[in-house]
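User: Reviewer 2 asked us to show a designed sequence for the structure in our supplementary figure. I'm pasting the structure tokens here. Could you produce the per-position amino acids so we can include them in the response letter?
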């Protein structure tokens, strides 16, 4: 095995973080991590995604200094966020001028509508039929 192969075998593969991008209102976008429920906001879609990349970098560095798995303090986002991601429009971070954070691969999607918990949807449906 060559030295390059040894180095790549010792280096862990990049972790993947799915990011849901939502336009909350004109001029306000949010980016929400799904494997690790983190949230950032920005005036543009690119600004929101760059914000979450900076947050990933900062928390990963903190976790590394404290000998913890990166972003281990954050649990997964709720299922309704995953559903919005799955039905959303995929977008490459490079299309928004955003680089992947060190050690991470970002998979992003733009939600077609603001995701809501199922309970909220059911209660509004019940009022409409009553």
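Assistant: Here is a per-position design you can include in the supplement:
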């Amino acid at each position: 095995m060559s030295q390059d192969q040894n180095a790549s075998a010792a280096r862990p593969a990049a972790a993947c973080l799915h990011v849901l991008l939502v336009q909350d209102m004109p001029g306000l976008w949010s980016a929400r991590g799904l494997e690790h429920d983190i949230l950032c906001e920005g005036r543009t879609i690119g600004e929101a995604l760059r914000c979450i990349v900076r947050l990933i970098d900062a928390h990963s560095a903190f976790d590394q200094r404290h000998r913890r798995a990166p972003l281990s303090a954050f649990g997964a986002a709720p299922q309704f966020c995953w559903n919005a991601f799955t039905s959303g429009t995929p977008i490459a971070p490079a299309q928004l001028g955003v680089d992947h954070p060190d050690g991470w691969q970002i998979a992003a999607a733009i939600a077609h509508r603001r995701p809501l918990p199922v309970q909220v949807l059911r209660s509004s449906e019940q009022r409409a039929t009553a």
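For the response letter, you might also mention the following. Residues 19 and 33 are 5 Å apart (CA to CA). Residues 1-11 have pLDDT under 50 and may be disordered.
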